[in-house]
Amino acid sequence: MFIQTLESLFGRKPSAAPGPRPRLRIGIPRTLNIWSTHQFWIGLFEALGIEARSIVFSSDTSEEQGREFGRGRGTVDCCYPVKCMSGHYGELIFGQKRRIDVLFSPMIYSLPSMLHGHVADSLACPRVMAAPENIRAGFTREKDVFAEQGIRYLAPLVSLGDPRLVAKQLHPALAEMLPGLPMKEVQRAVDAGYQALSAFNDRLRGRSREILAWCAREGRPCILVLARPYHMDPGIGHEIETDLQAHGYPILWSQYLPTDGDLMDWLFGEQVRAGEIRSPFDIADVWPTSYSANTNEILWGAKFAARTPWITCVIRLTSYECGMDQPTYTPVQQTVERSGTLYFSFQDLDSTKPAGSVKIRVETIAYYLERMSADIIGRKQARMPPGCPLLG
């Protein structure tokens, strides 16, 4: 159910800007934290007068993309999602019917997060943050491909987790693209970007609540995926959640769980009133070192799943050699399994998709869901207070 929404993540509305800028074509690699911030960039560029059809995202990650556009451009990095960026850069440079004018690949230092103010910080993975400059080296090592193709390369450092800094950080790069661009216009565009991102997130969280409410009314189970946003990319996450949904189980993603006050009070209110946590978004009870945005949201998602009766199974996706994820394996698994919720992990996702073993594991998960979900729902409901807002 939810996958259909995610497939249109990079959709966009017609620009509401008063008049288009000169017809610049801006290419943005569909990688890493662009998966959770894309609506900000769409809103920002449209507010600057860039036509929607001139904002070009690369396609989903694939082996074909890497072979055709990234071969020979790789740089040393053990992080598979970072290495995949070479194919995305190459596709934007060499694979367009109409040449792009700008390749825009921001180095995102911190991220907007629903947990902001309840955790220590919302920083991006440092390897992911530095990835644009790492991958750029593969296209300038022997000759400057960007200059040769007449493409301006822009990779501004931006702290999206701190809106007060963003306009100042982006202004120099945007002024390179649009000479004479005043700071006031950049600030208005940044505000529009945050509004677009907030509206998009609210819409998907609302859809998640609808799915949970349907499950609650019908007594049906659903699955929560705990992963980094880029695992929504079929070439990174290998569409494992799609295979599970084919068995009839709705899929939720931790980044888009509902955060409505009535639901938060039902799930976490007793702990807050007992002084065990400071707020429904506090994760200090399971993760005291709360500096990484994606890590924080994964841990919070595990807590959400442990309390929600109709989430009877959690799937954890991680990429090979992810140093940021490795310390979280045990606390996430313990948080989920102590509630009696099923937990399965795919911890070594890389370029190889072993279709046979994935199919066997998916069928195993579906078997346990069918066999155990009713009992899991009953036991978890018995532990929760009355008055579930999903049944109202």
Characteristics:
4-stranded parallel β-sheet; alpha/beta; about 10% strand; disordered N terminus; about 400 residues
Explain the overall architecture.
The two termini are 22 Å apart. The chain is globular. Mean pLDDT is 92; it is low at 1-7 and 13-18. Helix 3 (63-70) packs across helix 5 (85-94). The protein has helices spanning 2-6, 34-47, 63-70, 80-83, 85-94, 126-137, 145-149, 163-177, 183-218, 234-237, 240-245, 261-273, 293-307, 329-337, 355-383; strands spanning 26-28, 55-57, 102-104, 107-110, 152-154, 157-159, 222-226, 251-253, 311-319, 342-349. The protein is α/β, with parallel strands linked by helices and 392 residues long.
The whole-number mean of residue pLDDT values reads 92
Q: What kind of sheet is the major sheet?
A: 4 strands, parallel
- Per DSSP E runs of 2 or more residues, the count of β-strands stands at 10
Query: Which stretches of 5+ consecutive residues score pLDDT under 50?
Result: 1-7, 13-18
- Write the element-wise H/E pattern from the N-terminal end onward: HEHEHHHEEHHEEHHEHHEHHEHEH
